[in-house]
Task: inverse folding
């Protein structure tokens, strides 16, 4: 059984309690914000629509709005916290951006590598 990799992000309502393993992992998480090398980061903003709502304009619009707010905030925080980062938004990409947006990813990687000194 394949997991749905484009699940709808959580709403701003009450957060869902994390399973024990997830909570334990996050409790030991570290933030690495002192990265002094060039960074290329891809963000799917908004993610590709889940198949279950592709033909539902209202659900699609709600998904995209929530996803743009949720992932957009993550991308902005990443970019603000890491000045050496080049953040590339890829509209309607899925989790595997190198597959769903292969040409965009290759173009950005090539440009990024050419810009390194």
Result:
């Amino acid at each position: 059984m394949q997991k749905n990799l484009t699940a709808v992000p959580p709403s701003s309502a009450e957060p869902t309690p994390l399973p024990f393993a997830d909570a334990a992992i996050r409790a030991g998480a570290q933030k690495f914000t002192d990265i002094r090398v060039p960074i290329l980061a891809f963000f799917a903003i908004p993610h590709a629509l889940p198949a279950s709502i592709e033909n539902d304009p209202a659900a699609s619009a709600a998904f995209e709005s929530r996803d743009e707010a949720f992932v957009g905030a993550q991308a902005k925080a990443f970019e603000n916290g890491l000045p050496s980062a080049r953040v590339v938004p890829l509209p309607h990409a899925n989790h595997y951006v190198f597959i769903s947006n292969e040409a965009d990813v290759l173009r950005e990687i090539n440009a990024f590598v050419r810009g390194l000194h």
